[in-house]
């Protein structure tokens, strides 16, 4: 089949037989290839791991264990088992990515799981539901060889899945992705796969390009990535499951989402397409079937609505942001995702505080206080005193607002209690500017109490 890439380079340059060639000792990304759940071949994971070991920057191992991999059918009730098992394996082996292999008739479907798959991350755009297909005969035989073009694409997919937040690893990841993209741009076609693989191939090419250029301000980069995903959608009649359509719209949403942050020209024009594509993705990634993907799309939609609200002061956008975050909250529970749940609670506190202030609603302000207190179940005074003090200050500000709005001395006294809790931490930590600001707030609170007392005396 003909497979044209969006090539800015000379097409006379040909790729070498290996995806990358190591020339210095840099960091290593640890990759696990889980033993395939297929009951046919027991060597697929080892063969794939051996092939990937030639790729620069990867330390690849096959993970063979005797347990039931039936959750890899991706049915809704099994998604929880898949995620929990994968996170446990990642932690146990200190790995960056697990490659899950599952036999689907004459194909092998690969899915990629990383650390914090559904936590808030800025440049790991791959979903656990993104499926990479390859013919099963490529990995079934011990002496089977993966074509270099296909191995290059798989290598880029793995790098895109890495979610190591250490700065040096992020730098190295981008360096390797740049090499992969440069080589992809020199390919004219890939002869090892049939046209039925086209939408899946294009999906991963788009993910790889997006993982490299997500923070680009060049309109040409944006158009290239958009055209890749849109061409994949043109082949949607070859997509065998609605979830794959959901992933394509999800990535288009991510692309426009990034554009709202990094594109220098007309960033506001990207908000509506970002929201529209995320909402379309939600139709395919429903909360009852694929809850984590649905919840994460809700989280990203909330961010977009907040940005839109800040630019337009449209209060409905703020309400929409709260609604989407509430939907995410239902999925990411304190038990399973404590850190992310705490982060969501903090954002809810912020949004509800603003909404309560704009609408002069006591009930909404009280919901904001509760959200911040929920966040303090994760961010405690013991494990993170400075952040805990920041939250206390925010709670104090809401209590003070309610006290002033309703002439309620008890609310103002509660604000003073929160302010003094924060002041104690700030002074002990030598945070001079924060201490100075909160002392001013304390002064205002005492003045407000005095005025309330004077008004009471006058009424008597």
Give a quick precis of the structure.
This protein is 60% helix and 7% strand. The chain has helices at residues 44-52, 76-93, 137-140, 148-161, 167-184, 198-213, 219-234, 242-262, 271-284, 291-312, 315-331, 338-359, 362-375, 385-406, 409-428, 432-459; strands spanning 29-34, 58-63, 97-104, 107-114, 132-135.
Task: Estimate the strand proportion.
Answer: 5-15%
Distance between the termini: 91 Å
Largest sheet: 5 strands, mixed
Strand order of the largest sheet: 2-1-3-4-5
- Total beta-strand segments: 5
Q: Using only CA atoms, what is the Rg?
A: 26 Å
- The overall average pLDDT, rounded, is 86
- What's the order of the H and E elements? EHEHEEEHHHHHHHHHHHHHH
Query: Helical element count?
Result: 16
Show unreliable segments. Answer: 1-17
Using the alpha-carbon principal axes, give the shape. Answer: elongated
Structure classification: alpha/beta
Q: Percent helix among the residues?
A: 55-70%
Verbal overview:
- With 460 residues, the protein is α/β, with parallel strands linked by helices.
- Helix content is 60%, strand content 7%.
- It has helices at residues 44-52, 76-93, 137-140, 148-161, 167-184, 198-213, 219-234, 242-262, 271-284, 291-312, 315-331, 338-359, 362-375, 385-406, 409-428, 432-459; strands at 29-34, 58-63, 97-104, 107-114, 132-135.
- Strands 2-1-3-4-5 form a 5-stranded mixed β-sheet.
- Helix 1 links the parallel strand 1 (29-34) and strand 2 (58-63).
Question: Which features characterize this protein?
Answer:
disordered N terminus, 460 residues, alpha/beta, 60% helix, 5 strands
């Amino acid at each position: 089949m003909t497979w044209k890439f969006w090539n800015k380079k000379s097409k006379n340059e040909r790729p070498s037989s290996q995806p990358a060639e190591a020339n210095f000792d840099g960091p290593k990304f640890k990759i696990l290839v889980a033993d395939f759940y297929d009951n046919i071949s027991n060597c697929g994971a080892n063969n794939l791991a051996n092939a990937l070991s030639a790729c620069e920057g990867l330390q690849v191992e096959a993970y063979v264990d005797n347990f039931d991999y039936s959750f890899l059918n991706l049915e809704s009730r099994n998604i929880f088992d898949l995620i929990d098992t994968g996170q446990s394996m990642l932690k146990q082996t200190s790995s960056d990515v697990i490659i899950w292999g599952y036999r689907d008739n004459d194909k092998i479907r690969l899915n990629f799981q990383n650390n914090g798959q559904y936590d808030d991350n800025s440049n790991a755009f791959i979903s656990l539901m993104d499926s990479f297909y390859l013919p099963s005969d490529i990995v079934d035989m011990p002496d089977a060889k993966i074509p270099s073009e296909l191995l290059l694409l798989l290598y880029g997919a793995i790098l895109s899945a890495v979610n190591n937040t250490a700065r040096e690893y992020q730098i190295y990841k981008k360096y390797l992705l740049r090499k992969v993209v440069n080589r992809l741009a020199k390919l004219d076609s890939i002869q090892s796969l049939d046209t039925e693989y086209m939408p899946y191939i294009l999906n991963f090419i788009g993910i790889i390009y997006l993982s490299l250029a997500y923070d680009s301000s060049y309109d040409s980069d944006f158009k290239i990535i958009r055209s890749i995903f849109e061409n994949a959608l043109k082949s949607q009649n070859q997509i065998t499951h609605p979830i794959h359509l959901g992933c394509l719209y999800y990535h288009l949403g991510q692309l426009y989402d990034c554009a709202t942050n990094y594109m220098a020209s007309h960033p506001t024009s990207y908000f509506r397409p970002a929201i529209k594509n995320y909402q379309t993705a939600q139709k395919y990634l429903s909360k009852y079937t694929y809850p984590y993907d649905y919840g994460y799309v809700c989280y990203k939609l909330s961010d977009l609505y907040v940005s839109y609200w800040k630019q337009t002061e449209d209060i409905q956008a703020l309400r929409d942001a709260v609604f989407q975050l509430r939907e995410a909250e239902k999925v990411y529970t304190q038990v399973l995702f404590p850190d992310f749940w705490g982060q969501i609670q903090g954002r809810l506190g912020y949004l509800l505080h603003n909404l309560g202030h704009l609408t002069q609603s006591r009930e909404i302000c009280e919901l904001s206080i509760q959200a911040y207190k929920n966040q303090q179940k994760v961010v405690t005074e013991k494990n993170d005193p400075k952040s805990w003090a920041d939250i206390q200050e925010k709670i104090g500000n809401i209590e003070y607002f309610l006290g002033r709005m309703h002439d309620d001395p008890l609310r103002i006294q509660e604000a003073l209690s929160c302010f003094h809790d924060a002041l104690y931490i700030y002074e002990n930590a030598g945070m001079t500017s924060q201490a100075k600001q909160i002392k001013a707030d304390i002064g205002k609170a005492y003045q407000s109490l005095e005025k309330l007392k004077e008004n009471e005396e006058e009424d008597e």
